[in-house]
Amino acid sequence: MVFTRLLLVICCLAWGSASNNTCPPAFLNRCNCGMAYSRYGFPNQMKYTVNCTNSGFTSATMLQSLPSRTEVLIFTGNIIPTLPINLFNKTEFFDDLDTIDLSGNHIRFIQGKTFHRVSAVKTLILNHNDLEITDEKERPRLFSNFDELEHLHLTNAFSEKINSTDYLLSLEDIFYESRLDSLKTLHLEQNEIWSIGNNTRVFCQLPKLEQLLLTDNRLRDFDFRIDCLHSLRYINLERNMITRFSDDAMKRLDKYTEIRSPRKIKIRMRQNNMVCDCRSKHFIEWLNKTNADIEDWRDFKCNDGYPSSNVGKTLKEVHELRCPYDTSGNMRAMDPLSHAGHFHGYSSATIGALSFLLVFTTSLLLAVAYFHKQKLKSIFVPYWDFITRKIGYTGLNHDEAPQEVNV
Ligand SMILES: *[C@@H]1O[C@H](CO)[C@@H](O)[C@H](O)[C@H]1NC(C)=O
Ligand SMILES: *[C@@H]1O[C@H](CO)[C@@H](O)[C@H](O)[C@H]1NC(C)=O
Ligand SMILES: *[C@@H]1O[C@H](CO)[C@@H](O)[C@H](O)[C@H]1NC(C)=O
Ligand SMILES: *[C@@H]1O[C@H](CO)[C@@H](O)[C@H](O)[C@H]1NC(C)=O
Ligand SMILES: *[C@@H]1O[C@H](CO)[C@@H](O)[C@H](O)[C@H]1NC(C)=O
Ligand SMILES: *[C@@H]1O[C@H](CO)[C@@H](O)[C@H](O)[C@H]1NC(C)=O
């Protein structure tokens, strides 16, 4: 009796693990298929997960046999330079598939017809790839079958060979043509973006956008439009190269907060390149009075500044903002002391030592010249004659040049 019960338990366990943890044969036993806690979305929820992490695949053909009950597909750390047309089996339905993670696969090119039957997917992750999306590689309808996509992760996703201003233009086309009307979160961290460039409306194609993450780029200003984004509530600009906001950026943010009030937009921008001199005066005053929620701005550190004692201070500790140099009359007018302050760097002891050295060297040279005056004369007199004759000739030559051409 006990024995049969034991047998039953073993049997059930075997069946359980077989039905839950075995992938179809095409996966070559390199992946895990089964219920697993999801890293994405709700943390304490188990989902049917197909996990091919660092499986050494160089093609994605096995995804044709992806079980149709899959809820989370993790396919990362493989080498798939080009994603094929119809990545998943076209005759199957994937109504439960809510997360696709394709990070770190060295993907360079995604064809326009790669993704089908993905209308339930909420999260698409393409981090750490080498995507090229410009010129002949541009496929504006790339994400068009992701009808309910809410979170798009494009952290360090693009090839560094292509200038960010170029692929941002393509990205605007992709957002427009793919109609990502449910997108709430856009991750664009670590993409070497130095300027949004001419397409300041790039994010306007994402009407439901709530969170925009531009951390770890090279932005120098807040140079994109947000007035078209009615649900936006969070922007991350940490670790960029922002020295201060331009007047235009401050105006745009004030206008946005005025319209959205009382809801606030939160901007996180620690570890930028704050410069605390007279040119930041307006910006720091603005930070102190704007209704936009610039998180912890009082603790931003000055990476540079004038007077130089500002360097390393936080914005709340800075009390004096002067101009580093005279760029124009009006800057001097703002701070009449800046000019005089400029020479304070050299101590009088240094200047004294330098003057002494100069006088000493000159007298030494004169003394040497005096003692060898006969010899010097014999060297220099012929040269002097030669030079004066030469100048005479060249002067003549120059005057005659037109005549020579005529001959
Ligand atoms: C196997 O999957 C079934 C549902 O398909 C589930 O009830 C069962 O708990 C799973 N077993 C294991 C060991 O994960
Ligand atoms: C996927 O598999 C890898 C390695 O096999 C493992 O480290 C990782 O935790 C798995 N992920 C999930 C969500 O199960
Ligand atoms: C695609 O799905 C169909 C229908 O379920 C199935 O018959 C076919 O074998 C699948 N193709 C592959 C390559 O697994
Ligand atoms: C991108 O192009 C701009 C000018 O068009 C240039 O200033 C910048 O250095 C380029 N950036 C890279 C990473 O090539
Ligand atoms: C913006 O457009 C102007 C004119 O169309 C062009 O001259 C300029 O190079 C563009 N700037 C960038 C950063 O692409
Ligand atoms: C901010 O403004 C208040 C008064 O409105 C002022 O007392 C305070 O010194 C200002 N702080 C900074 C850092 O400018």
Could you please describe the fold and organization of this structure?
With 407 residues, this protein is of the alpha/beta class. It has a domain of 262 residues: Ribonuclease Inhibitor (Leucine-rich repeat, LRR (right-handed beta-alpha superhelix), Alpha-Beta Horseshoe). 31% of the residues lie in helices and 12% in strands. An eleven-stranded mixed beta sheet has the order 1-2-3-5-7-8-9-10-11-12-14. Strands 4-6 form a two-stranded parallel sheet. Strands 13-15 form a two-stranded parallel ribbon. The site of one 2-acetamido-2-deoxy-beta-D-glucopyranose (NAG) has 2 residues, from loops. One 2-acetamido-2-deoxy-beta-D-glucopyranose binds next to loops.
Q: Gist?
A:
With 407 residues, this protein is α/β, with parallel strands linked by helices.
The biggest beta sheet is recorded as: 11 strands, mixed
Q: Which strand order does the major sheet show? A: 1-2-3-5-7-8-9-10-11-12-14
Distance between the termini: 128 Å
The 3D shape can be described as elongated
> DSSP strand (E) fraction?
5-15%
Do you know the CATH topology of the domain at 20-271 and 285-294?
Answer: Leucine-rich repeat, LRR (right-handed beta-alpha superhelix)
Average of per-residue pLDDT values: 83
The CATH architecture designation of the domain at 20-271 and 285-294 is Alpha-Beta Horseshoe
Total beta strands: 15
